[in-house]
Amino acid sequence: MIAGLRFDHFDLQYRDNRTGRNLRRIDNFISPRAGIVFKPITPLSVYANYSVSYLPSSGDQFSSLTAITQQVKPERFSNYEVGVKWDVARNLSLTTAIYRLDRTNTRSIDPNDPTRIVQTGSQRNNGFEIGMNGNLTRAWRVVGGYAYQDSFVTSATTAASAGAQVAQVPHHSFSLWNNYQIHPRLSAGLGILNRSDMFAAIDNTVVLPGYTRVNAAVFFSVTERVRLQANVDNLFDTKYYINADNNNNISPGRRGAFGSGLRPGFKDLLM
After folding, report:
1. 90, 116, 221, 268 - which has most CB atoms within 10 Å?
2. Region for 85 from its dihedrals, namely left if φ exceeds 0, alpha if ψ lies in -120 to 50, beta otherwise
3. CA 169/CA 189 separation, integer angstroms
4. Rounded CA gap, 166 and 24, in Å?
5. Is the dihedral of CA 239, 240, 241, 242 positive or negative?
């Protein structure tokens, strides 16, 4: 059995030196967590978990306040999850989970007063994921997984109608990284990342197309503490768009490029 409470105190202060205006907002959060883990047999774990978290009005960077965001209540996130972990072999494990994430107090401009924000919106994200991590053979190590997400608006605001898809949440995503030990000092890696299309903004008018990207790497151990590494990101120079701030501010992904490095003490598998 797992249970706990987390207390957060946020005292956000912002001063505009040009106007001399001071803004401040104080929030206190109590976030509960509860879960259970059951092991019917030694290599198998079944778990269920519930947790709550909050996002203050200044956002996840806590960067600043404005006259509008100062009046905004924190957003609340409630997460429900059930999953399984199976140690198939000594160095290989499989995991899977289904979850629901409910987001409330989402913001929208008050249609009757553009200087105010109303928080009548809510969103839901239903998801499923399966992953694999470990060695298929002594020389071949893999890390990868597939995830399905359906993220949609459950309570309409002036920015989005009920049922609209949440921006920048693809329905399908898949990744697989392979690392093969060619020689005690030499290994090579190959990774594949696939993502389906997604909307750039909550109004669902602009689509960022899906893509498949391939990365590669070569590692050479000079000593136990020093390893040389060469990377090729986006091996086949795929054109893709990684994210967007809105429908008119879209960030292209990195085109094919080489990189290298000397990393003392580097022993972990890189993704």
Report:
1. 221
2. beta
3. 28
4. 30
5. negative
C-beta atoms surrounding 56 within 10 Å? 20
Q: Which of 271, 201, 202, 203 shows the shortest CA–CA distance to 241?
A: 201
Inter-residue contact 22 to 13 (CB < 8 Å): yes
Of 68, 32, 74, the C-alpha closest to 55 is: 74
- What is the rounded CA–CA span in Å between residue 271 and residue 266? 13
Can you point out the beta strands (E) in the chain?
A: 2-16, 21-41, 44-55, 75-89, 92-110, 113-135, 140-155, 172-183, 186-195, 198-199, 207-208, 211-221, 226-233, 241-246, 249-252, 257-264
- Over the stretch 248-269, which tens digit does the pLDDT of each residue have? 899 998 877 655 444 443 333 3
Give per-residue pLDDT as tens, 126-180: 999 999 999 999 999 999 999 999 999 888 776 677 788 999 999 999 999 999 9
Residue with tokens 């994210």: 243
Q: What are residue 3's phi and psi, to 5 degrees?
A: -150, 145
Q: Are strands 21-41 and 2-16 parallel, antiparallel or unpaired?
A: antiparallel
Phi, psi of 138 (to 5 degrees): -60, -35
Instruction: Please provide the size of the chain in residues.
Output: 271
pLDDT tens track for 217-242: 999 999 989 999 999 999 999 999 99
Query: If we measure between CA atoms, which residue out of 216, 251, 265 comes closest to residue 236?
Result: 216
Distance CA 180, CA 136 (A): 10
**Amino acid (1-letter code) at residue 10:** F
Distance CA 230, CA 217 (A): 6
